[in-house]
Amino acid sequence: MAEKKETDKLEQNQKEKPIPFLLNVVLTGFIGGVLWSGIAYFTYIFHFTTISPNIFFEPWAAGEWKDSWIGILLSIIGYGIVSIGAALIYYGLFRKLRSMWVGAAYGIGLFLIVILLLNPLFKSMKSLTELDINTLITCVCIYLLYGVFIGFSISYEEEERMNQEQQQGKDVSQN
C-alpha cells in the first residue's frame, strides 16, 4: 500500500491538468486571428488582395506609423485580440455542432459583416461591388478558412471534453 502511494507521487505518474475550456477558446481565437491575419498580410504583399492589414487602425489612429512594420505587427496582434471575441461568440452559439461546414459558414458570415456592415468605418476599403475579383476571392477564402479553424478547433475540444466527462462517469460507476 505504501509503495502505491509513493508511485502515485512520482512525476511521470501524475496526470496533466487540462487547460480550462474557456481559456482554450481564448487561445484558439487569438492564435487564429494572428495566424490568418498574418496570412492575409502575405496575400497583400503578393498582390492577391488590395486590402492592407493595417486598415485595422484606420478608424482611430493617425500618423504614418501604421504603415510601417510596427503598424503591421500591431495590426496583426489587434486582429488576434478581436478574434478572441469572434471565438467566444462561436463558443456560445455553435460549439456543440461539429461540422466543418458550420465553421465555414461562420467565416463567410464574418466576411459579410466586415464587408457590408463595418465597411463605413474603413475609408480606404471599397464596397463589396467595387472590390476586384482577386481581392474578393482571397478575402472570402481567408475568412472561410479562419471560420473552419475556429469552428473545428472549438467543436473538437468540446467533443473531447464531453467524452472525458462520460469516461470519468463510467469509471466512477464501475468502482
Automatic annotation (TrEMBL):
Coiled coil: none annotated. Keywords: Membrane, Transmembrane, Transmembrane helix. Pfam families: YqhR (PF11085). InterPro entries: YqhR. The chain crosses the membrane at residues 21-48, 68-93, 100-121, 133-154. This is YqhR family membrane protein.
